Here is the input.
Amino acid sequence: MRDEEQAFHTERLRLSTVGRTYLASKVRSVAQEDGDGAGYDIRSYGLNGGDRPLEVKTTLGHARTPFYLLSNELAVSQERPNAFRLQRVYDLRGRPRLSSSSRH
Here is the structure.
């Protein structure tokens, strides 16, 4: 869970840094609090206050190591392409790094 925790804190910091502390306080770890069926791991927010579902994918290898999306994750990415974000944590065995989030 270290990977999702890192992404969670990064999201809160992203919002706090630009003065959106209220939104930062609303960021939730959906996977940890509600289970893994929502199609994303973290409920965050864009700077405009819009929903920003964030799926965290972790690999042991380098940043280009392939990974799989589950069907519910793919569905959310297709239903909400402008909001959905995918964030990678890679090199988990070495020095874990978080890629910048990107649109799917």
